[in-house]
């Protein structure tokens, strides 16, 4: 069994993290790797190129609609994109309001 590898892209806003990560993941998927991307940007646009769509629903927004994160199923939050890349967006508060880490922690615990 192949070992699990984790890659993180981080830095200040506007430097191309989402574009770089999505292109890197597309290349890895073309090499036959199984990929899960967990977007941690409050704008929830980390997966839009992979999904050929606008921002997908986030774990936090879906949990708010459902009543709690315990009421969600993996199929509710995960979308399949280019080359079977699995995409999840954690979500977060509006920029400048609340704790952005809350969405990430909630998502990681859920997954």
Structure explained in plain terms:
It is built from five helices and three strands. It has helices at 17-30, 48-51, 59-66, 74-77, 101-110; strands spanning 36-39, 79-80, 86-89. 36% of the residues lie in helices and 9% in strands. It is globular. By secondary structure, the protein is an alpha+beta fold. Strand 2 and strand 3 form a beta hairpin. Strands 1-3-2 form a three-stranded mixed sheet. The model has no long low-confidence stretch (mean pLDDT 88). It has a domain at 35-110.
The main β sheet shows up as:
3 strands, mixed
Kindly state the number of beta strands: 3
State the end-to-end distance.
21 Å
Question: Strand portion, in percent?
Answer: 5-15%
Going by helix content, strand content and strand pairing, the class is alpha+beta
CA-based gyration radius: 14 Å
Coarse shape: globular
The helix/strand series, from N terminus to C terminus, equals HEHHHEEH
Number of helices in the DSSP assignment: 5
How helix-rich are the residues, as a percent range?
A: 25-40%
What number is the mean pLDDT?
Answer: 88
Features:
111 residues; alpha+beta; 3-stranded mixed sheet; globular
Summarize the structure.
The protein has a domain at 35-110.
Write the SSE topology.
Layout (H helix, E strand, L loop, with lengths): L16 H14 L5 E4 L8 H4 L7 H8 L7 H4 L1 E2 L5 E4 L11 H10 L1
Parallel strand pairs: 1-3
Antiparallel strand pairs: 2-3
């Amino acid at each position: 069994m192949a070992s699990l590898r984790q890659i993180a892209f981080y830095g200040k806003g506007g430097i191309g993290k989402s574009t770089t990560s999505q292109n890197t993941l597309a290349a890895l998927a073309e090499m036959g790797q199984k990929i899960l991307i967990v977007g941690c940007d409050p704008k929830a646009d980390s997966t839009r190129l992979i999904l050929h769509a606008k921002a997908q629903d986030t774990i936090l927004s879906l949990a708010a609609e459902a009543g709690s994160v315990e009421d969600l199923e993996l199929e509710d939050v995960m979308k399949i994109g280019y080359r079977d890349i699995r995409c999840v967006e954690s979500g977060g508060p509006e920029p400048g309001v609340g704790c952005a880490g809350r969405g990430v922690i909630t998502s990681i615990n859920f997954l």
